[in-house]
Amino acid sequence: GRYKIVGQVSIGMLLGIGLLLLPFSDIPATWTQIPFFKTWHVDFFMPWAYVLFVIFIITGSSNAVNLTDGLDGLAAGLSAIAAITFAIFAYVMGRVDSSDYLNLFYLPGAGELAIFCIALAGGCMGFLWYNAHPAEVFMGDTGSLAIGGVLGAVAVMLKSEFLLAIVGGVFVLEALSVASQPAYFKWP
Question: 0.85 exceeded by the pTM?
Answer without folding.
Answer: yes
